[in-house]
Amino acid sequence: MRNVTKRFPGVVANDSVDLTIESGEILGLLGENGAGKTTLMNILYGLYSADEGEILVDGAVTKFDDPGDAIAAGIGMVHQHFMLVPVFDVTENVVLGVEPTVGPVGTIDMTEARREVQEISTQYRLEIDPSATVEDLPVGIQQRIEIIKVLFRDAEIIVFDEPTAVLTPQEVEDFFGIINGLKESGKGIIFITHKLGEILEIADRIAVLRRGKVVGEVVPAEATEEQLAEMMVGRPVDLVVEKEDADPGEVVLSVTDLLVRDDRQHTAVDRVSFEVRSGEIVGVAGVQGNGQTELVEALTGLTVPLSGMIHLGGENVTLVSPRFMHRNSVAHVPEDRQRSGLILDFDVAENLVLNSYYDEPYSHGIRMDWDYAHQHADQLIDQYDIRTPSSTVKVSSLSGGNQQKLIVAREFSRDTKLIIASQPTRGIDVGSIEYVHARIVAERDAGAAVLIVSSELDEILALSDRILVMYRGRIVAEVTGGEATATELGLYMAGLST
Amino acid sequence: MSDEGTEAKENKEPKEPRWVERVAPKNVDWSSLAVIPFLAVFSALVVGAVFIIFTEGLGSVLPAYGALLRGAFGGWNSISETLLVATPLIFAGLAVALGFQAGLFNIGAEGQMTIGGLTAVIVGISFEGLPAVIHLPLALAAGFVGGALWGFIPGVLRAKTGAHEVITTIMLNFIAFRILDYILKQPFTQAEGRFDPISKDVLESARLPRILTWLPVEGVEMLRLNLGFILALAVAWIVYWILFKSTIGFEFRAVGANPDAAKYGGMAVTSAIILVMVLAGGLAGLGGSNETLGVLGRAFPGFTAQIGFDAIALALLGRSHPGGVVLSAILFGALRVGGRAMQVETDVGIDLIIIIQALIIVFVAAPELVRAIYRIKGGEEARQLTRGWST
Ligand SMILES: Nc1ncnc2c1ncn2[C@@H]1O[C@H](COP(=O)(O)OP(=O)(O)OP(=O)(O)O)[C@@H](O)[C@H]1O
Ligand SMILES: [Mg+2]
After folding, report:
1. In a domain, A242, yes or no
2. What pLDDT score does B377 carry?
3. Neighbours of B373 (CB within 10 A)
4. What is the rounded CA–CA span in Å between residue A274 and residue B313?
5. Cβ contacts of residue B49 below 8 Å, gap of 6+?
6. What is the mean pLDDT of residues A321-332?
7. Is residue B355 domain-resident?
8. Nearest Cα to B118, choosing from B171, B174, B173, B184?
9. Which residues pair with A256 in a beta bridge?
10. Predicted confidence (pLDDT) per residue in B48-64, tens digit
11. Which of A181, A409, A474, B162 has its CA 20 to 30 A from that of A344?
12. How many domains does the structure of chain A reveal?
């Protein structure tokens, strides 16, 4: 890519970017939230057209009008949210759009398709059952399907946009194995992440973007996490959380024998009991899908538990609505920001009042005070460094990390007695993680009770005063924050130790 | 690939109705809010011209469109008729648009108009001797309530059982027509000396008064435009205010755009759905009352004249924005009224108007087509397939 520039109303997302990628190489792409990584990759994949600059494939200038052109030129992209048809099986998903056909009317040749998928899967050691139905498969496997899809279309360059954000540590290991395999077979890989450790481990070369410009290229052997962080953000970043010992006060949240069923009526949370006190941070560790989602939904009033009790400051809140919880100073950072945390089609100001619009000063009676809401938004944009041209742009045009920052800003800017945060820093850059973590600790020191649910062990270990490990809907262990190690927690999380 | 992406996406996120974004875009994006509808109308007229050329020859295009324009706006009588026809379209269009904003596809405006028009007539033929200042508002209120009831039923079914409103509102349309037939044959409502289902005349005190009779022009007694039009404009403004300036409207739009996030935000999704359908039904009911208490002065089978279905088209054209609905309704009224003049003055039949209307909808429903024809940039967002942790 040579001299690529892309402007959006109010922002220059890419500013004369030069980037090369060789075959048989893994290029790590780093950059703070809104630096323009995703935009650059969307240009490479033909989703956006660059305002200036050109793309060269094997030395020849190529023009992509849509992803079809990019695919034909051997470029593939694995999107963060997988684009799979849940009720189709693996093979059907892989061949969708490029089905091998037989006969004069072009009947789909499923046997041939299955054979080819099997072949790719063995060739690149992507273990998979070509006839499994997608919706039954875990995220890590779904990602493999995406990779096979790209390989099936003969990609030579494969872009991964934050592929590890939703993977468990074990899945990350497997994933690294896979992309190393791809590299050995001569593919060029572009890998975007916010996790500095990962990029140092896997990349051959690292390019850093800041505010749309390439600010440097390094090789992992000569770089440290601190250096990378500084290159990204433009200032030194504290990668460890500074905090005093906790000084727990009275019980704020108390959960007794909580039993929650998921949508399919399976028991997701199995008679769980615990307490969170004011002035302490309790971390809930666990591989995703072990009941954390349902636990948080029950705690925040989004689902009704089957049995058990939830008390907030001594008051029984087992059956109250989400609004009651918000009004009683409970902040909730939801796990999936795009599904439930944001309305992508609404603007920044509207999203910032999503769960407080019904109270003064954002509304008077039924009249919304949009002027006030926008002022409020401008203030939070400033304070939380949300990169957006203004408070009137749709949230869908914000970068992923900035969307997350918006939610954090909304939840932490209120009076909080209890903070329930699921994956609070998913997809946000190191500089902002530092800020969010500092805010969490500050809230704790100001007397809030904090419950952090994260599959990110580093985050749990860095923040928690007390750690609970969830496995198959139960709390299988409780450890003191300072004394826990990742290995120990890992064993509990895998259900190997009790 | 892009097809595949879209398809997969729709399956992946069934809870976020993607079409809502298209029919009810929130932020004022000029190209989709105003430019596309304008070009859609323009393109439809061009294609319509091609039809005229084929059937009548090149020379007929200008006379035909000239007659259309004059018939719609050339003179007080034309304007009065155009706005008169537009009035029920505004009410019904608002009923559909409100639904769209909340992610609901209200195909039942026709039935809601029917019931609302009927309840308004029942009040309108009763209470002899009541002064107009009480009788008319009462009849209108009855129309609103009747329509609201007809919206409430699919609203509850959707909210409580998940029964899709497209199905239930269509069914309720047929039930409404039969109820109309039945009630109109009751001695209480049926016009005296008639055996077919037709109501008595609405009492003078419940009629919508004409509003242009003060004009110092000739033939002023021909100007049929009535108070309903003013009422429609006022109601459009109220709907606008509710949608964009009130907490209730914020909830409606949030429920339409992302029910999960609405729930997270502490909104009562089910009551919002019911309330939207009630209000939408009420709006359509006012449209029906506008007919029975205004121009027609009575109710008879089919008095709604497909207005409730045209409303879907014009809500689309108006991008589900109350202002857009008003403008689209006036456009449809103009086409209708001007079309009559065109038929009389030239050999071009009124069918052309139906073709033009249909074409407008095709162009509006396929904004990409319009963008491609006129090479408008934009819509990148719509093509954006990467939605993830890292949008
Ligand atoms: N469709 C769009 N319309 C308007 N602005 C956009 C659009 N997409 C991205 N932007 C803007 O371009 C800039 C770069 O965004 P991009 O998504 O490329 O960031 P990123 O580096 O991927 O960040 P993150 O790490 O948060 O995912 C941001 O300021 C964003 O607001
Ligand atoms: Mg990104």
Report:
1. no
2. 58
3. 12
4. 56
5. B61, B65
6. 93
7. yes
8. B184
9. A309
10. 999 999 988 888 899 99
11. B162
12. 2
Nearest to A247 by CA among A278, A271, A224: A278
Q: For residues A81-93, b (16+ Cβ closer than 10 Å) or e, as one string?
A: bbbbbbebbbbbb
Q: Which residues pair with A224 in a beta bridge?
A: none
Q: Give helix then strand counts, H and E, for chain A.
A: 16, 24
Chain B contacts in chain A segment 317-376 (CB below 8 A): 321-323, 326, 332, 334, 337-347, 350, 354-355, 357-358, 363, 366-368, 370
CB B92, CB B109: distance < 8 Å: yes
Yes or no: say if B148 and B135 are a contact pair by the CB < 8 Å rule.
no
- A336-378 pLDDT, tens digit per residue, is 888 889 999 999 999 999 999 999 899 999 999 999 999 999 9
Pick from A471, A498, A496, A478: nearest CA to A286: A471
Closest CA to B36 of B47, B49, B25: B25
Per-residue three-class SS string for B32-56: HHHHHHHHHHHHHHHHHHHHHHHHH
**Backbone phi, then psi, for A471, in 5-degree steps?**
-145, 125
Q: What is the pLDDT of residues B105-119, one digit of tens each?
A: 999 999 999 999 999
Q: How far is the CA of A39 from the centre of ligand 1 (A)?
A: 6
- Could you tell me the strand order of the sheet in which A213-218 lies? A75-78, A157-161, A188-192, A25-31, A205-210, A213-218
Average pLDDT, chain B: 86
ipTM field = 0.85
CA-to-CA separations, A51 to A45, A48, A71, A342, A492, in angstroms, rounded: 15, 9, 21, 30, 51
The identity of residue B344, as a single letter, is: V
SS3 A284: strand
Q: Answer whether B253 sits within 8 Å of A346, measured CB to CB.
A: yes
Cβ atoms of residues B317 and B117 within 8 Å: no
First to last CA, chain B: 19
Asked if residue B123 has pLDDT above 60, the reply is yes
User: Tokens 């997608």 — which residue?
Assistant: A134
- Cβ of A397 less than 6 Å from ligand 1: yes
Please count the CA atoms within 13 angstroms of the CA of B148 that sit on its side-chain side. 13
- Give the CATH number for residue B48: 1.10.3470
**Structure tokens of B334?**
């103009």
Distance CA A388, CA A326 (A): 26
What are the pLDDT digits (tens) for A171-181? 788 889 888 98
Question: What are the beta bridge partners of residue A347?
Answer: A394
Would the pLDDT of A8 be above 90?
no
For residue A14, which ligand has an atom nearest its CA? 1
How close does chain A come to B259, measured CA to CA in Å? Answer: 8
Strand partners for B226: B210
AA letter at A354: L
Partners of A326 on chain B (C-beta within 8 Å) are 266
pTM, full prediction:
0.87
The residue of chain A nearest to residue B101, with distances taken between CA atoms, is A345
Pocket perturbation via mutation, ligand 1, pick of A5, A12, A39 by most ligand atoms within 8 A of CB: A39
10 Å Cβ neighbour count for B169? 31
**Partner-chain contact A85 B8, CB within 8 Å:** yes
Give the nearest chain B residue to A33 (CA atoms): B390
Domain range for A227: 2-233
Question: Do the domain assignments include residue A105?
Answer: yes
Asked if A183 and A309 sit in the same domain, the reply is no
Radius of gyration of chain B (CA): 22
Q: How far is the CA of B147 from the centre of ligand 2 (A)?
A: 48
Q: What is the domain range of residue B299?
A: 29-203+224-390
Domain count, chain B: 1
Q: Which positions 237-296 of A are in contact with B (Cβ < 8 Å)?
A: none
Is A86 within 8 Å of A135 (Cβ atoms)?
Answer: yes
Residue of A nearest to B13 (CA): A339
Q: What average pLDDT does range A287-302 have in this prediction?
A: 89
Residue A161 CA to ligand 2 center (angstroms) comes to 7
**Letter for the amino acid at A465?**
D
